[in-house]
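Hi support team,

I submitted a single chain yesterday and got back a structure, but I'm not sure I'm reading the token output correctly. Could someone confirm the output below corresponds to the sequence I sent? I've pasted both exactly as they appear in my results page.

Thanks,
R.
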Amino acid sequence: MYSNQTLKRKKRLLLAIQSIIKNNMKITLTIALMLISHIAIGQKIEISSKNGDSKELDGKSQMERIIKNYEKEIKNWIFTKKIYIDKNVIPFSHPVLTLNCNYFDNDLKQLATFLHEQFHWFVASKIAEEENAIKAFKELFPEVPVEAGLGARNEYSTYLHLIVCDMEFQALTKLIGENSARQLLAKWTHYTWIYKTVLEHKQVREINIRYGFIIP
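Hi R., thanks for writing in. Yes, this is the structure output for that exact sequence:
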């Protein structure tokens, strides 16, 4: 029979060993995730025409040119590698990031739209942080618009876009400077209340920083 003191020592030793194993597993998992992330960044983005017509193929060529021109700057902001070009849709992020052909005359607008949808993927990977940020936004802005042009399709989506649109603003600021980024976002005819709020209320950025919604 072991004494109580001996049993306590054995228990402490067992806990210490379990802690070492647990920490090593965490380290291994972290390294694995870093390697996976590194591999993903190196993979080529796959861009496809949804319907195969000439307009979408031109849109595909445009996106390939944009990505090539900004490859170094945006490589850490790519969270999904499969892209569709569909002339018949409003851009969306899931299940496959899909862009339309509305900005043939403006590569920067198409790039901004592409990054906007990429950041939806980033936010979707941080569910708890997303919920906490939206809770904070609800306290700051108890009522938000859902009308077409002003807000998103529903209240939750409007709050969600305070994260995504601010990340878009952060990215454009890095790419073209804050003044030019402000000018571009202020001219969007969609989500006008959201972009106005992002540009004019510093509390939006403060909340996003608090919950880790800053560009990598």
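A quick pointer for reading it: The longest strand covers residues 46-49. Let us know if anything else looks off.

Best,
Support desk
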